[in-house]
Amino acid sequence: MAFLRIILLRVLTTLVTLAGVAVIVFFVIRVVPGNPIAMMLPPGATEDDIARLSALYGLDKPMVTQFGIWLAGVMQGDFGTSITTRQPVLGLVLGRLPATLELSIMALVMAVILGGSAALIGTRGRGTRTEGAIDVANGMALSVPDFLWGLVLMLVFGVLLPVFHISGRVTPSLDLPFTTGFYLFESLIRLRFDLWADLVAHMFMPALALAIPLAAIIGQLLKQSLKETMNLDYVTLARTKGYGETHVILREALRNAALPTLTLVGVQFTFLIGGTVIIERLFSYEGLGNMAIDAVINRDLPLIQGIVILFAVIFTAVNLIVDLLYAVLNPRLRHA
Amino acid sequence: MSFLSIRNLSVRLKNGPPLLRRVSLDVAAGEVRGLVGESGAGKSMIGKAVLGILPPSVQITEGEILLDGTDLLRLSPRESRRRIGASCALIPQDPLTALNPSHRIGPQITNRLVDILGWTRAAADARAIDLLAEVQISDPARVLRSYPHELSGGMRQRILIASAFAAEPKLIVADEPTTALDVTVQKQILRLIAGMQARHGTALLFVTHDLGVVSKVCQKLSVLYSGLVLEDSTVTDFFTAPRHAYSAALLAATPKYTDPDAGLQPVPDAVIGAVRAEVDSFDRKAAHG
């Protein structure tokens, strides 16, 4: 019963958050300068043309009325029609979503592997030069933002040592058999490892650029809490049982030390998803972020709204997943 | 031949003051030796050195720790860890922090039997049930499935005691095992440790600052001050005729239940001064080789 109440409460707060996001994004993009009609008509269009086009898109009505119309549509799953492409926003946005999700998850996996290994190696060699080297690398990784890492990677692995593709999601000339948008996942299911390799070769650099700063944060925080955990009594007791250092770190300390890191990773992962906007642009990766920038440039109001709402849904979903994981890892929370 | 024999063990903080000053002591098989002294006297440090869990900030500068005749300090870290794991165990001070909060009780008792000593899982599980019954825990099967936070402090200390005896070690280091417990529970736990020790014939190094505990549990004792062994004698001799003035002062400072109005008797300043002088003269001699 308690569990059901928590879920209900969660859904309710999520709805409030989404409503807030909807209101803010709707009015903010209408208050900032620039309007879609000006982008659609050639310079020198008559007042009459502008008025007619505005009426066609409902932009002549008061802002509150526009909001009411849009919200009523959203309630029925209709997010409006994109002004630039004249296609339903929902279809456009959902079509791009898998690309961004795959990129973000790939980046997250990379960050956890890189940051986790750094933390483990640093803890294993604490007090030695190894730990110092890891701290220095962490500091460097953290002080450079993701898009700069993107440029650096492009120069190194795209130009000097061309092993990865620097743009796009997949080589355009390839024949794609996919029925879903999750190319990377589906290529594995279909055992098309050639396509999988091509997708990874495209995705590797943008994902790594997104992963490096997060990896540094994970590395630093996890190492810190691992080192604290390694001084606790139950770890000392495990040492007296004849276990070696590596076993003690992995089996006794890691799970408890990972808890504070997990909370932070949840928050940072949403930042990472935000980072996809610029990184996708940089690597011409056809995801949501790239679409968002186009939508803003073209003042495609319905599309911007759709994308922002979708990002908000993703953020709340990530937070929910983190909370659930936390309960799984921490037995003390399970019965609460 | 003693099972544990410590010879001239000196430990110091790296680039800092000495913590143990040429400590020598023996614990024979099946014998209980108390280590007594004030806070900071180095009694816990001896137990940690024996078990190979000294903090990284301290280093052993000289001496031998002979376990069954083999000097642990001459072995590779891996080999000494293996020997300690196979023949020694620790009963820690604070039962609330000595169990891993994210593992169930069962594996915390049985894993070492399986991983280190090569038992089968079934044999280890059966052993855990027997042990919990021996430390008077009712419904052992349920307790083995529990997480530490579901159990009381006294219960957890019983589990830690059971766990220490699990592999039939030759030597157990008990590091103030009753200090963190309620007074009412202390007595039960003490009786439990003494009973288990007698039944299993385990040698016990009992770190405590409570002379009452020593008189109940130990046969021998070492009195420490500032890392220096002041007196090494049998418990009978110590309580009837302490040889060192500091020992006598410690005895006099122990509150007596028979005379509750007597008030607390601190160790006299003159005695402390004399002991400090003894420590200083030891350091001077050590400095001149």
Automatic annotation (TrEMBL), chain A:
Superkingdom assignment: Bacteria
Gene Ontology terms: cellular component: plasma membrane
UniProt keyword terms in alphabetical order: Cell membrane, Membrane, Transmembrane, Transmembrane helix, Transport
One Pfam family named in its UniProt record: BPD_transp_1
Molecular functions per Gene Ontology: dipeptide transmembrane transporter activity
Family indicated by similarity: Belongs to the binding-protein-dependent transport system permease family.
Cited PANTHER family: DIPEPTIDE TRANSPORT SYSTEM PERMEASE PROTEIN DPPB-RELATED
Protein name as it appears in the record: ABC transporter permease
Naturally occurring in which organism (per UniProt): Pseudotabrizicola alkalilacus
Taxonomic path: Bacteria, Pseudomonadati, Pseudomonadota, Alphaproteobacteria, Rhodobacterales
TrEMBL record, chain B:
Keywords linked to the UniProt accession: ATP-binding, Cell inner membrane, Cell membrane, Membrane, Nucleotide-binding, Translocase, Transport
Topology in the lipid bilayer: Peripheral membrane protein
Transmembrane segments: none
Any one GO CC term of the record: plasma membrane
Domain ABC transporter: 4-251
PROSITE patterns reported in the protein's UniProt record: ABC_TRANSPORTER_1, ABC_TRANSPORTER_2
Sample GO molecular function, one term: ATP hydrolysis activity
Pfam families, sorted: ABC_tran
Gene3D superfamilies given in the database record: P-loop containing nucleotide triphosphate hydrolases (3.40.50.300)
InterPro entries attached to this UniProt entry: AAA+_ATPase (IPR003593), ABC_Ni/Peptide_Import (IPR050388), ABC_transporter-like_ATP-bd (IPR003439), ABC_transporter-like_CS (IPR017871), P-loop_NTPase (IPR027417)
Statement: the UniProt record of this protein carries the keyword Phosphoprotein: no
Cell compartments where the protein resides: Cell inner membrane
Presence of the UniProt keyword Aminoacyl-tRNA synthetase in the record: no
Signal peptide feature range: none
Principal location class: membrane
Family: Belongs to the ABC transporter superfamily.
Protein name: ABC transporter ATP-binding protein
Organism name: Pseudotabrizicola alkalilacus
Lineage, top ranks: Bacteria, Pseudomonadati, Pseudomonadota, Alphaproteobacteria, Rhodobacterales
